[in-house]
Amino acid sequence: VQLQASGGGLVQAGGSLRLSCSVSGITFSVQAMSWHRQAPGKQREGVSSVYRNWRTYYADVVRGRFAISRDSAENTVYLHMNGLKPEDTAVYYCAAARQDPRLVWATYEYDYWGQGTLVTVSS
């Protein structure tokens, strides 16, 4: 399974971006999809996840501003980011799990990772 993330870029505070993560390979083995991010000097943190039953999870710091969606026909997961803040600046990674994680933000729960896409929010 390979994951390809795209859609990052430079945006002003208050702006919007949509990240995409396309999944190729043995896609039927993928159950949960997730977005994580890592800011300079900080640990990787979970942002949003969608499980096979379409249940979604959001980190408190993005809830109400970000939305995750999944297009099973296209094997793609999206992260719609609105109301971006400078503190959202990070490299965003998509991840996939063969089973729905018991701990939604634990990186070890995810089996596959994309290469990351940089989001920079200017003030």
What does this structure look like?
0% of the residues lie in helices and 50% in strands. It has no helices and 11 strands. It has strands spanning 2-6, 9-12, 17-24, 32-38, 45-50, 56-58, 66-71, 76-81, 90-97, 112-113, 117-122. Strands 2, 4, 5, 6, 9, 10 and 11 form a 7-stranded mixed beta sheet that branches. Strands 1-3-8-7 form a 4-stranded antiparallel beta sheet, with no helix packed on it. It is globular.
Rg for CA atoms? 13 Å
Shape: globular
* Strand coverage percent: over 45%
- Quickly give the structural class: mainly beta
- pLDDT averaged residue by residue: 94
User: What is the number of helices?
Assistant: 0
Task: Write a short abstract of this structure.
0% of the residues lie in helices and 50% in strands. It contains no helices and eleven strands. The strands form two sheets. Strands 2, 4, 5, 6, 9, 10 and 11 form a seven-stranded mixed beta sheet that branches. A four-stranded antiparallel beta sheet has the order 1-3-8-7, with no helix packed on it.
Topology:
Elements: E1 2-6, E2 9-12, E3 17-24, E4 32-38, E5 45-50, E6 56-58, E7 66-71, E8 76-81, E9 90-97, E10 112-113, E11 117-122
Parallel strand pairs: 2-11
Antiparallel strand pairs: 1-3, 3-8, 4-5, 4-9, 5-6, 7-8, 9-10, 9-11
Label this structure with key terms:
123 residues; 0% helix; globular; four-stranded antiparallel β-sheet; seven-stranded mixed β-sheet; 11 strands; mainly beta
